[in-house]
Design a protein that fits this description.
Elements: H1 5-20, H2 28-39, H3 43-53, E1 58-62, E2 65-68, H4 69-85, E3 93-97, H5 102-114, E4 117-120, H6 127-136, E5 141-144, E6 158-161, H7 162-169, E7 185-189, E8 199-203, H8 208-217, E9 225-228, H9 235-246, E10 250-252, H10 259-269, E11 273-276, H11 278-285, H12 289-292, E12 302-305, H13 312-322, E13 326-332, E14 336-341, H14 343-348, E15 355-356, E16 361-365, E17 378-383, E18 399-400, E19 403-412, E20 418-423, E21 428-430, E22 433-435, H15 437-445, E23 450-460, E24 464-473, H16 481-491, E25 500-503
Parallel strand pairs: 1-10, 3-4, 3-5, 4-7, 5-6, 9-10, 9-11, 11-12, 12-13, 24-25
Antiparallel strand pairs: 1-2, 7-8, 13-14, 14-15, 16-17, 17-19, 18-19, 19-20, 21-22, 23-24
Helix pairs in contact: 1-8, 2-3, 3-4, 4-5, 4-7, 10-11, 11-13
Length: about 525
């Protein structure tokens, strides 16, 4: 049974309270409450409370050093004031085109203070794709990194580079900026692995339905230091940034992901948490034992992974290297949070996506919309109060009884663990047999010579489709196409043996680490 919004909000408040319990000076809480009352229960209000409570604490640590909560508040005030003077406010749509650095956080907070709608733009967009998205999402103003200037369309209300924003942010005023209490829309773009990215919209940045299950399952605590390696413009990194600001924590980020750089950040800042997408874990582990041993990662209380399939071999390798601290979170931009796999779940069943998260509902339906029995593969549907409100261009995901399609196929086992068998549009029909790539990919990834593997379907005159395997070998390892085929034939049914094998240096992925399967063929 779905919980009422009031009950879900109470759950989130209780989870936040548990995460934030600490003994401190008695004057801090009244100051925080006063700041929150003045600003309102918005993201800006949460940062105002943190700035009033811990003004000298670091809000962000990036390549340029640390930015305190007081400085974050002052700098975002200055940017918001200049934007408002330029005609930007409630009703305007601001596009954020920033990599992981303090400028992203300042721009986000300034936009929130204005009550504007915010569209998070992918920094991997080429110029034409960026222009297409800006037009289709009705963006009025783009706040962007300097290197993206040439790609930003000229016919906008405004275009502000990071250099301009830094100069503006340094201005001080004796007159406080009065933040809007209006909560604008948040638009997060889908990965665009099958075409133009769609804008998934919802009101505000955070939701009780996302906060409560994360806080109740993953050991997040107030005033933690957390390395967020995942892109901030995407839902996974963004949710951890918002949650960290609400908990007066310190977000440690680096402008461009680098596996050695991430380990160095963990060694230097001694964080409690590391937030990644699976491909980042792959690249970190690929450094090898000698390189990994140079960095002290013992401070980590959790590694939180989401954004794409984790895979059994990667889950096992991560736990072996870092200990039982890995959490695998499954969901999507549209359906929000569905399941969470704890370290205990992953040690028992490394391939699992976990158990249904608090406040969510997950069902497996067959083609007729009927619930599948345990063990049977079907389409995954999710119910959550944090579900999106539809695409900005119109339309949404398929809905059955108030539950939204995740776009995946999967099954539950007898212990209540969910397994994702693939995308519902990735199924390969070869000689009348249905094959989901994930099963073959997981098997290939377990081969001692394989770093990564992907499987897709290609046209075949005899069978309709045949399987094609694309392999990335480990450094120094050698493997032949016949050895790949023999390995699959020894473990799986004959119709799952790839007819074609290709070896590449790297798999095509989006900036959030998702496989661009259409590029494999």
């Amino acid at each position: 049974m779905a919980l009422s919004p009031g009950v879900r909000a109470l759950q989130a408040m209780a989870a936040l309270a548990r995460a934030g319990l600490r003994i401190e000076r008695p004057d801090r809480l009244p100051r925080a409450l006063a700041a929150l009352v003045l600003t309102g229960p918005t993201m800006a209000g949460g940062v105002a409370a943190a700035a009033a409570r811990y003004p000298r604490a670091a809000a962000v640590a990036d390549d340029d050093g640390e930015l305190t909560y007081a400085a974050l508040w002052q700098r975002s005030d200055a940017v918001a004031r200049s934007l408002r003077d330029g005609g930007v406010g409630v009703g305007a749509t601001i596009g954020l085109l920033h990599r992981n650095h303090r400028g992203f956080v300042v721009s986000l907070l300034a936009a929130a203070k204005l009550g504007a709608d915010i569209v998070y733009l992918n920094t991997g967009f080429a110029g034409p794709q960026l222009a297409d998205v800006v037009t289709n999402e009705g963006i009025d103003v783009v706040l962007h990194d300097d290197e993206d200037g040439p790609d930003v369309p000229p016919d906008l209300l405004g275009s502000w580079s990071q250099s301009q924003l830094d100069a503006i942010a340094g201005r001080r005023s004796l007159v406080p900026f009065v933040a809007s209490r209006h909560v604008g829309r948040t638009v997060i773009l889908t990965s665009g692995t099958t075409g133009r990215p769609k804008g998934a919209q919802r009101n505000g940045l955070g939701s009780p339905d996302t906060l409560a299950p994360l806080l109740s399952t993953i050991p997040l605590r107030a005033r933690d230091t957390v390395v967020i390696a995942a892109p901030l413009f995407h839902a996974w990194g963004l949710s951890h940034l918002g949650l960290g600001l609400a908990l007066s924590s310190t977000a440690v980020v680096q402008r461009q992901f680098d596996p050695v750089g991430v380990l160095a950040l963990v060694d230097r800042h001694r964080p409690a948490g590391l937030v990644v997408v699976p491909v980042m874990l792959q690249r970190i582990l690929a450094l090898g034992g000698e390189a990994l041993a140079r960095y002290d990662t013992s401070s980590l209380r959790y590694i939180a992974s989401s954004g794409s399939a984790l895979g059994a071999s990667l889950a096992t390798a991560t736990i072996q290297r870092f200990g039982p601290i890995l959490y695998n979170v499954y969901g999507s931009t549209e359906v929000s949070l569905a399941t969470i796999a704890t370290p205990e779940d992953l040690r028992m069943a490394p391939a699992t996506a976990g158990r249904v998260a608090q406040g969510s509902i997950v069902r497996i339906f067959d083609g007729d919309g009927q619930t599948c029995p345990v063990g049977e593969i079907g389409r995954v549907f999710v119910g959550s109060g944090a579900r999106f409100e539809g695409y900005t261009g119109g339309g949404g995901k398929e809905d059955i009884g108030g539950l939204l399609s995740s776009g995946d196929v999967g099954h539950f086992d007898a212990d209540g663990l969910l397994y994702i068998d693939g995308r519902d549009d990735d199924m390969i029909v070869s000689g009348g047999e249905n094959v989901f790539p994930a099963e073959v990919e997981d098997l290939l990834a377990d081969h001692p010579a394989v770093a990564e593997a992907a499987v897709t379907g290609v046209p075949d005159e005899r069978f309709g489709q045949r399987l094609k395997a694309v392999i990335v070998c480990l450094p120094g390892a050698s493997l032949t196409a016949q050895e790949v085929k023999d390995h699959v034939r020894d473990h799986l049914a004959r119709h799952k043996v790839p007819g074609t094998v290709e070896f590449v240096d790297e798999l095509p992925r989006t900036t959030t680490g998702k496989l661009r399967r259409r590029d494999l063929a």
